[in-house]
Specification:
- It is built from 11 helices and 12 strands.
- The protein has about 325 residues and is of the alpha/beta class.
- A 12-stranded mixed sheet has the order 7-8-9-6-5-4-3-2-1-10-11-12.
- The structure holds S-adenosylmethionine and iron/sulfur cluster (SF4) (2 copies).
């Protein structure tokens, strides 16, 4: 089994299919002007399918397509159809902002997509517009209901909580998800990338999120959902639904992190907070064999020592503190959330 320097196996692959996005979420990529990847540099679907197959042979069982906004990439259903055929792949999922889901979900489901994660941080149309700068809540809701009508299951909702911005949306989101049968996971606001002007005071810790929900809708804990999954799940005491919180800031899970990331331009990235990746595209386009590409992936994974969130937690608790601006990172939009 392929393991990194801390004995963590490679299990999940997040593939960013594009760095482009039709939203400009304030917590992710608020900049209107940004240097996008050159189109020639973006991996073709054939290149992605080839690399994905090699990752699965090395131990990956779960692939998530992400971005940027993955549905902004033309004909994504054809990539889903190809990836669905990979022998040994147990789970293929998509994380999307949902804005283009209603128009594409039928083709995606036909291609083999079984489930989807949709990001939605508020149910207030005006606030939604403010948080995403370009998004339309109605379109995202239409996408969610279209996905449900298409039979995708489970449909998970991701909500980043930013203090003073949408912490008052926690209860409305929880009630909405419960009523509609969607699985909701709140995400602590992270210092990903460099563009979002993150500060510690904007983080609403998991504990506070759960207390807020519990005061309104009593909860009981039923443990971490899949061993290595980062979201510890709770269920409502009345038996009607579940909720999770991904606590990357206050309860980092680096010791169980089995995720590799492939950027849209073909770099292998071993941590969400990395500054650079390892160029697989050069090998692919330089005529390397499958064996040579697999050897490169294995070498990078074996040398992996990433544990950024653990280290940040220690720094936050230390006398000198943690200053996000001191650490340059790849933008989340380019490496895949
Ligand atoms: N565009 C798609 C979407 O929004 O779902 C996929 C890419 S997005 C980068 C993936 C996930 O990262 C989304 O659920 C988003 O909410 C989350 N995300 C972005 N910036 C974040 C931040 N600063 N802290 C925590 N999560 C963040
Ligand atoms: Fe928002 Fe996702 Fe686009 Fe980032 S990639 S700006 S989270 S929609
Ligand atoms: Fe994994 Fe890096 Fe996140 Fe830690 S900080 S959980 S190593 S991606």
């Amino acid at each position: 089994m392929l393991q990194d320097a801390f004995d963590r196996p490679i299990r999940d692959l997040r593939i960013s299919v594009t760095d482009r996005c039709n939203f400009r979420c304030t917590y992710c990529m608020p900049l209107d002007e940004y240097v996008w990847m050159d189109k020639q540099e973006i991996l073709t679907f054939s290149e992605i399918a080839r690399i994905a197959t090699l990752f699965v042979r090395l131990g990956v069982s779960k692939i998530r397509l992400t971005g940027g906004e993955p549905l902004a990439r033309k004909d994504l259903n054809t990539l889903i159809a190809r990836l669905s055929l990979i022998c040994g792949l147990e789970d293929l999922c998509l994380t999307t902002n949902g804005s283009l889901l209603a128009e594409q979900v039928e083709a995606l489901a036909r291609a083999g997509l079984k489930r989807v994660n949709v990001s939605i941080d508020t149910l207030d149309p005006e606030k939604f517009r403010r948080m995403t700068k370009r998004g339309n809540l109605e379109q995202v809701l239409a996408g969610l209901f279209a996905a449900r009508a298409q039979g995708l299951h489970p449909i998970k909702l991701n909500a980043v909580v930013e203090r003073g911005v949408n912490d008052d949306d926690i209860i409305p989101l929880a009630e909405f998800a419960r009523k509609q049968g969607f699985q909701l996971r709140f995400i602590e606001y992270m210092d990903v990338g460099n563009a979002n002007n993150w500060v510690t005071s904007k983080v609403v810790p998991k504990k506070e999120i759960l207390q807020k929900i519990h005061a309104h809708l009593p909860l009981e804990k039923f443990g971490s959902n899949q061993g290595h999954a980062p979201s510890v799940d709770y269920r409502y005491a009345d038996g009607n639904g579940e909720v999770g919180v991904i606590a990357s800031m206050t309860k980092p899970f680096c010791s169980n992190c089995t995720r590799a990331r492939l950027t849209a331009d073909g770099r292998l990235v071993t941590c969400l907070f990395s500054l650079r990746g390892h160029d697989l595209k050069a090998l692919l386009r330089g005529g390397a064999t499958d064996g040579e590409i697999s050897a490169m992936i294995s070498k990078v994974w074996r040398a992996r020592t990433d544990r950024y969130s653990d280290q940040r937690r220690k720094a936050i608790n230390s006398d000198s503190g943690y200053h996000a601006g001191d650490h340059r990172k790849l933008e989340m939009i380019s490496l895949g959330g």
